[in-house]
Request: fold
Amino acid sequence: MTAAPVRALANQSPLWPAQLDHIQRNSDRPEALVSFYRDAAGLVPREVGASLWLMEGAQRRILIGAGSRGEQPLNVFRVQSKPQLTALRAWLEGRGIPLLKLPTPLFSEGFAVRDPDGRLAAFGLPDPAFDAPPASDLKAGRLPGRLQHVVVATADLTRLIRFYEQELGFVASDHVYDGDKETGPVTASFLRSDPEHHSFAAFRAPEARPDHHCYETNCWNDIRDWADHLATLDIKLWWGPGRHGPGNNLFFMIEDPDGHKVEWSAELETLPRDLAPRAWKHEERTLNYWGQAWMRS
Reply:
């Protein structure tokens, strides 16, 4: 990938605005993930299918299912209305993209598409039966943390970003370049589906795999309170605290029992839809102004 993807087609898509509603994590030991996200993230579990758990709290929910360890096969985005969903369906059908059956029990209407790495991206409207968080006495349930973005790694960044940007209609916020800005190979791209800096992003890597998902808090004090809470569970910070370049947000990350990275963030920047993507250099300072960075490639 030697240049930023063309954006003209993306600007016509009815996708905007949409938000990440939930993701699905799979594991060969799903009960361990259920316990972890209950205690660490304050998510109340309930079974919603055979070996499938809904983990939910205020403004955050994920699905945990049985499968291969480390799988993250599904990202689900919420649109604003039935007319928007209808327009998005027509847009994708007009582009010849196969539409698949809705793969989540949490939405009443919608559809999915399969991205070039085989992952499902679903779009739709929530089922009211699942759209209110349960009452909870979990300590972390009182801490703010809205599910905000999901990130993947891919061996073919050009193809994957072209699909999300030009076919689905995500808008590029930032590209990271190895070598000269805007001419070297792209090592990471951050895409938004509403004014927040990114709801989906991808990094260059030797193989396609999950990277992390993120809960957005309100301020630095929330970052402190989450880290203090995790310390009571003897869960160590894996990376951070720090400040990202793209997004300009405060952050730290931990690992769940399967090694999947989980991020807490604050003060993620917002951008107008028509802002052209910016260019960053592939170096540690881009990913962490304050110190060491997780360099995927």
Notes: Residues 82-94 form the longest helix (13 residues). The domain at 144-287 is CATH 3.10.180.10 (2,3-Dihydroxybiphenyl 1,2-Dioxygenase; domain 1). Residues 186 and 237 are 28 Å apart (CA to CA). The longest strand covers residues 19-27.
